[in-house]
Amino acid sequence: MIRLTRLNGKQITVNALLVESIEETPDTMITLITGKKITVLEPGPEVVQQITQYMRSIGSVTGTIKSLDSEGL
Questions:
Q1: pLDDT tens digits, 7-29
Q2: Residue 52 Ramachandran class (φ > 0 left, ψ -120 to 50 alpha, else beta)
Q3: 51 and 19 Cβ atoms separated by less than 8 Å
Q4: 19 Cβ contact partners less than 8 Å away, ≥ 6 residues apart
Q5: Which element (helix H / strand E) includes 62?
Q6: Among 12, 16, 19, 40, fewest CB within 10 Å belongs to which?
């Protein structure tokens, strides 16, 4: 889970595993795989960084790399 800030200043916790896309329009809009859209104050690269940190913390990133290595890709 990652903590972000809505446009009204309130904090929101988002399940990083459900993020489908991040778009800056100029506000940062996050689209979840459910179709729900969330607009936040944090810039896109910061959101990506938080998601990457979260994925590393749960072992998702290293697990994918190990899997690709074991398949000889």
A1: 999 999 999 999 999 999 999 99
A2: alpha
A3: yes
A4: 30, 31, 32, 33, 51
A5: helix 60-70
A6: 12
Residue with tokens 């000889």: 72
Residue 1 has pLDDT above 60, yes or no: yes
Tokens found for residue 72: 């000889």
**Residues 6+ away with beta carbon under 8 Å from 18:** 32, 33, 34
Q: How far apart are CA 29 and CA 18, in angstroms?
A: 14
Closest C-alpha to 32, from 53, 10, 17, 11: 17
Write the single-letter amino acid at 2: I
- CA 65, 69, 70, 72 torsion: positive or negative? positive
